[in-house]
Amino acid sequence: MSLDKIARKIQEQPLAEEMKSSYLDYAMSVIVSRALPDVRDGLKPVHRRILYAMWNLGLKSGAKFRKSATVVGEVLGKYHPHGEAAVYDSLVRMAQDFSLRYPLIWGQGNFGSVDGDSPAAMRYTEAKLTPIAEEMLFDLEKDTVDFVPNYDNSQKEPKVLPAKLPNLLLNGSMGIAVGMATNIPPHNLSEVCQALIYLIDNPEATTEDLMKFIKGPDFPTGGIIFDKKQIKQAYATGKGGIVIRAKADIVEYEAGKFQIVVTELPYQVNKAALLEKIANLVKEGRLEGIKDIRDESDKEGLRVVIDLKKDSYPQKVLNKLFKLTQLQDVFYVNSIALTEEIQPRLLTLKSILQEYIKHRQEVIRRRTEFDLRKAEERAHILKGLKIAVDNINEVIKLIKSSKDKEEAKVRLIKRFKLTEIQAAAILEIRLHQLAHLEVKKIEDELKEKLRLIKEYKIILSHPKKILAIIKEELTELDKKYGDERRTKVVSHPVNEFKQEDLIPDEPCVITLTRSGYIKRLSPGIFKTQSRGGKGVIGLSIKEEDEVEHLLTTTTHSSILFFTTSGRVFQLKAYDIPQSSRTAKGQAIVNFLQIQSGEKISAVLSLKELANQKFLIMVTEMGLVKKVKIDSFIQVRRSGLIAIKLKGEDKLQWVKASSGKDEVILTTAQGKSIRFKERDVRPMSRSAAGVRGIRLKKGDKVIGMDIIKNTSKKGYLLVVTENGFGKKTKISLYKVQKRGGTGIKTAKTNQKTGELVASLLIDETSLSTYKKGDIIIISSLGQVIRIPLKAVPILGRDTQGVRLMRFKEKTDKVASITLV
Asked: Active-site residue 124, yes or no?
């Protein structure tokens, strides 16, 4: 062609217009042919072509594995005119159980890992379809979808798959096109099936209605997602961010040693990169308290162990990990997909489900039309065969008298008014088909075909029948492939979370040793035993340590800690790490700003103070002070002054009162005094208090209780250091003026030892404790739990009975509590 002819064919066009036109063509090509999934089957072209190629190769779930290279070659040669890397990468992702919630390809060999490891080359790996992938392709041969020419017009490929399963929601999709991107999370099959059935029955259903079934995304790697409001927004608009956290548990693996164990990661988080990030943060000093990081993942599942330093606070370390690493991530939903009109649209949850139902209606209609057509064709032939067997002698005579097959066909058509198809079928009958049973089979098959034809016509004439079939198929798929949700959904937003939202409000026992080691236990770990038993080991402690305080409360309670120097601190019960029965616990100085030489002397739960007005404080030397509870509602981290002490005196007891109660004090040498609370006037926090009991030389107060003004019945329970105890009626203690020496409450001697604890069981708590137990802890950590009713009721001037025997001769009772 000459240059003149070429010049005449050149059309002039502004550069801006040409760039705009060419760019739009390119953009639409990327959007339609590469980056965005079809809302009907949830697949991009490359994924659809891989599944179709494997279907044609016979690589079904029951077949033998074949090399991935075979599949890639089939796809490249017939359907996908792009690089082999793109095809193999897509095949690999469909086989990864950490990428797809319901993998479509069953891979054999190295298909990569959650650490970001590359898969083996396609010549080494093998693949075949999973049963779920087959559900996507079933009925493909029944003209259920349109086929289009491939890139060189030598083959036909499906425009979309029949897709019995709503794959777009089940496995989600990700893709970056030109000017737009899609990011749809995976979901639980059972939940999606139930939502579809509900939507079929209730077309006007709202997003909120559908969320009764679809709780939120269900990622293959599990994790925890937060904030139902954000999830609802993402479903209602097609866009939104959903916060996802790893499943991380704080575990005590040895006494006083804790570790964070991660068993589930946020979706698409690279485990190796995450561990590297944590290690770098530790090196940079931005993350403290971590001693070691180990990846203990194996074929049983993911497991990352983070060992913590002895004095670290596990919850604080975990919170910082959530803040600084991908242990907490955000999945940004952007539900863009191609609709039937090959147009990209931002889709809501309801519109995705509606598009799927619409697609399945079309598939079932076309499948039914195909089955009807095939049934009618077969019935037509069977009718001809029935005419032949009903007139078999005449048919045989007619055929024998014909000079060839063509003449026999013409004569059969003319004689019995048959069609060419029917006549041809009669001429193909073999002699064995004339047997009685074979004739019966023809008649039965004809009846069955006529029944099916009637059924197919009813389905096609009633749209509700098609919807009923969709519901039936979804129910069957749910039973066949449905499984439990892997990702936990939490209603609250993560940034508004309080610790209480993650910890159940349940009973707990808090113990504190003389050396200042505190821990939280479940009361259920101590089983009830008979009186006089040896108990079980309650905790591991040093030889010189002993248990001093035992408190029963609930995990959500605020705990007041009063110190021997007269200060008070506040702490939530759940902030005290839960430990095993034999663990030592953690040092209290990790939680409270206690000074050197200062010890915790009293522990109170604010939950128990709700209906009270005052706190009554008693020192070891018998001083008594009354302060309004309101003075201790807000306690700063550095603590507050609770009482002003003189000399070597120490604050030892703090209990709540109504303002109209009585106080009873008990001493180590077996004395008690009972006086009215009104004898002590309310004072300020900085006051020193007044005398409650006059002590003999060497004596000290070992117990204090409040007797409610309504109480007429009740007992004073006393326990000696050598394990003896008793209950004495409270009515045996007369009311005196404060400041006296008191009266006898127990006979103490070398056998019993001095009193170490006393507890009042008054009328208000008597009904509660009738079926209750007493827990006794020894100085060396031995614990026994016995029924309260097993402790006998005796007079004041008695020594009591043995409640506990010790494994070590030097051991003694340290403290008691009721549960």
From this structure: yes
